[in-house]
C-alpha cells in the first residue's frame, strides 16, 4: 500500500513537471495581420446630359409659289439729251469730257503752238554760254518759259475764249462754228510770227497746191512751219548771246598762256568774269525783253 502511494505521488510529479514552465513563460503575442492597401477612388463619371424635351413641330402644308408683281413704271419721263450743236447749253458731262481731252493734248499744243519752245531754248543757250551745266536747273527754266509764253499769248487766249469757248458754252454757236471762230486768233498769231520761207517750204513738201491766201492754209501746214521759224529765231538769239562770253574765254585763255599757267583750266578762271558781266548788264532782263519784243 505504501508502494502504491509512492507510485501515485511519482505519477503526479511527472504529470505536473511539464506544465510548470509552460505556465511560467507567457506565450508570444501573435504577429499583426498585414493591412490591405486602400483601394484608389474610382473616377467620377459625368452625369448624363439632360436633353431638353422635344417639342413637337406643327406640320405645315407646302405653299404654292406666288406670281411676281409687275414692275412699277417710273413716275415721270426721263430724257437724257447731250447737245453738241449749240441748240442749248451743252451738258456738264460733255464739258468735263472735253476738258479732260484737252488736258491730254495740252502738252503737245504748248510745245508746237506757243512760244514755249523758243523761250526754253534761248534760256538753255544762255545757261550754256555762261558755262553753267546744271544751274539753273531745267525745272526752273521750264517754269519760267511757261509763264513767259502765257504772258505773250495772253491777248490771243482771251480772244479765243471770247470768240469760241464762251459762245459755245452759252449755246449761241454750234461745235463746228465755235471751233472755227476760236481757232482764228491762234492762226493770226502763228501767221504773224512765221516766216514766209518756212510756209512755202511746208507747202512744197506737202505736195498740195499753193493756197490763194493765208486763210486757206491748213493747220497741218501752218504748225510745222511755225515750229521751224521758232527754232531758227532761237538759234539766232543764242548766237548773239554766245559772242561776248566767247570773247571772255579767248581773253582768259591768252592771258593764262602768256603767264605760263597752262595747267590752270581757262573755263574755271573765265566763269567768275562771265557771271560778273551777265549781272552788270542785267542779262536776264535783256533776254526776256528781246523774247517778248520778237512777238510784237
Automatic annotation (TrEMBL):
* Taxonomy of the source species: Bacteria, Bacillati, Actinomycetota, Actinomycetes, Micromonosporales
Query: Which Pfam families does the protein's record reference?
Result: FliP (PF00813)
Q: What's in the keyword line of the UniProt record?
A: Bacterial flagellum, Bacterial flagellum biogenesis, Bacterial flagellum protein export, Cell membrane, Cell projection, Cilium, Flagellum, Membrane, Protein transport, Signal, Transmembrane, Transmembrane helix, Transport
- In which compartments does the protein localize? Cell membrane; Bacterial flagellum basal body
Signal peptide positions on this chain: 1-24
Q: Which GO terms describe its cellular component?
A: bacterial-type flagellum basal body; plasma membrane
- The source's superkingdom equals Bacteria
Question: Transport: is it a keyword of this entry?
Answer: yes
Give the protein name, as stated in the record.
Answer: Flagellar biosynthetic protein FliP
Question: Transmembrane residues, as ranges?
Answer: 94-120, 140-158, 233-254, 275-295
Coarse class of the primary localization is membrane
Q: Which organism is it from?
A: Krasilnikovia cinnamomea
For membrane topology, the record states: Multi-pass membrane protein
Q: Would the keyword Transit peptide be found if you checked this record's keyword annotation?
A: no
What does the protein in this record do?
Plays a role in the flagellum-specific transport system.
UniProt record similarity statement: Belongs to the FliP/MopC/SpaP family.
| Gene Ontology terms: biological process | bacterial-type flagellum organization; protein secretion
